[in-house]
Amino acid sequence: MTLPIWRPTLRERLATWWKRGVKRWTMPEIMIAVGMLIVTAFQLVVLCQQTRILTQEHDDAANRDAQTQAITEAQKSIATASQGSADSMYRSADYSRRALEDNRHALEKTIEMWRIEQRPWIGPLRIDGPQGSKEAPVFSIDVSWLNSGKTPARKFRALVGMENKAAKTHYTPNFAAGSTVSASLFLPNTTLHSLLTHPLTDQETRAIVASRTQKMYAFGRATYQDTFAKPHSHWSTFFYVYEPTTGTWTIMGTHNDTDAD
C-alpha cells in the first residue's frame, strides 16, 4: 500500500514563515518594513504614471509625425496638381493664342483679298487719233481712261505725252512730261479723257509717215487712291507707238503695267 505524499498548504507555509521569522520582529522593524512597502508601492505607482506619460508622449509624437507626413504628402499632391493645372492652363492659353493669331492672319488675308477684288482699276481704254489722213496726220490724240473696278477712285491724276524720235534710237518714255488731267473722284465703269496735241513740222511728219526714219510714241501714267478706310495708292502706265501703215497705235513690249495691290 502506497501512502500519499504530504504537501503543506499555503496557510501552513505562511504560519511556518511567521513562526520562524516575522514573529521574532520587533514593532520598529515591522513599521520599517511596512514603510518600505508603502514607499515601494508609491515608487511603483510613480513609475507606472511616468511610463503612461512616456507612452502617451510617444503616441502623440507618432501621431504628430503621421500628421506631419500626411500634411507634407497633401502639400506635395496639391503642388503637383497645381503645377499640372498651371501647365495645362499654359498649354491651353498658348493654343488659344496661336489659334487667335491664325484667325487674325486668315481674317487679314480675307480682307486683303476682298480689298483687291473691290478696289478701283484704272488704265487706258483706247487712244483716238491722230486726226487727218494717214498721209498727213495731225497728232492730236484723245486717251480714254477707264475705271474697270468696283469702287470709286480718289485723287486721280493722269499725265499723257507724245514724242517723236529717230527710228533706230532706243526710247524710254518720260512719264514726268506731258498733258495732265485730274479728278477728285473717278466712279467705276466711267471714263475720263486726256487730250493732247503734239505739233510737227512737215518734214517730221514725212519722216514718220513716208521714210519711216522717225517714230511717234504716246505714253502716260495715272496715279490714284482707293476709297477704303486705310487708302492705298495705285498707279498705271501705258506705252504705244504709231503704226503709219494702219494709222493706229500699237502697244509696246515694255512700260505697260499697273500695281498689283
Radius of gyration: 60 Å
Q: How many domains comprise the coordinates?
A: 2
How would you classify the quaternary structure?
A: single chain
Number of helices: 3
Structural class of the helices, strands and pairings? alpha+beta
Q: List unreliable stretches of 5+ residues.
A: none
Distance between the termini: 142 Å
Average predicted local confidence, pLDDT: 86
Describe the main β-sheet briefly: 6 strands, antiparallel
- The level-1 CATH class of the largest domain: Mainly Beta
**Name of the CATH architecture of the largest domain:** Sandwich
* SS elements, strand count: 11
CATH topology of the largest domain, which one?
Immunoglobulin-like
Provide a descriptive summary of the structure in words.
With 261 residues, this protein is an alpha+beta fold. The protein has two domains: 22-118; 122-258, Immunoglobulin-like. The protein has three helices and eleven strands. It has helices spanning 10-20, 27-118, 202-209, and strands at residues 122-128, 131-132, 137-138, 140-147, 153-166, 179-186, 191-197, 214-225, 233-243, 248-251, 257-258. Strands 5, 6, 8, 9, 10 and 11 form a six-stranded antiparallel β-sheet that branches. Strands 1-4-7 form a three-stranded antiparallel β-sheet, with no helix packed on it. It has a two-stranded antiparallel sheet with strand order 2-3. The longest helix is centred in the first third of the chain and has 92 residues, at 27-118. The termini are far apart.
